[in-house]
Amino acid sequence: MITDEELKVEGLKALTEALGDVQAEKFIALIMRSPFDYTKWQRKLWDEKSVEDISAAAMKLRNSKPA
After folding, report:
1. What are the φ and ψ backbone dihedral angles of 47, each rounded to 5 degrees?
2. What's the CA gap between 59 and 44, in Å, rounded?
3. Which of 12, 19, 44, 55 is the most exposed place for a label (fewest CB within 10 A)?
4. What is the reported pTM?
5. What pLDDT, in 10s, does the model give residues 20-62?
6. Max CA-CA distance within the chain?
7. Closest among 40, 20, 19, 12 to 4, alpha carbons compared
8. What pLDDT does 19 receive?
9. Helix (H) or strand (E) run with residue 17 in it
10. Is the pLDDT of residue 66 over 80?
11. What is the 3-state secondary structure (H, E, C) of 18-66?
């Protein structure tokens, strides 16, 4: 398990790689200023996907990245 600091660094790195610097900053600002319940959001995130669909997407992503 990684430390909280390492998690923050890796999370920010993932955001900036996926969204770019400006959009990552905008995303963080949106999360910080709105009431946000991660648990409720997470429950709705995959409503239309089966466990098999999510697993297949995760495996595809994992296999597409170099080791």
Report:
1. -50, -40
2. 21
3. 44
4. 0.52
5. 999 999 999 988 888 878 888 888 888 888 999 999 999 998 8
6. 37
7. 12
8. 95
9. helix 4-19
10. no
11. HHCHHHHHHHHHHHHHCCCCHHHHHHHHCCCCCHHHHHHHHHHHHHHCC
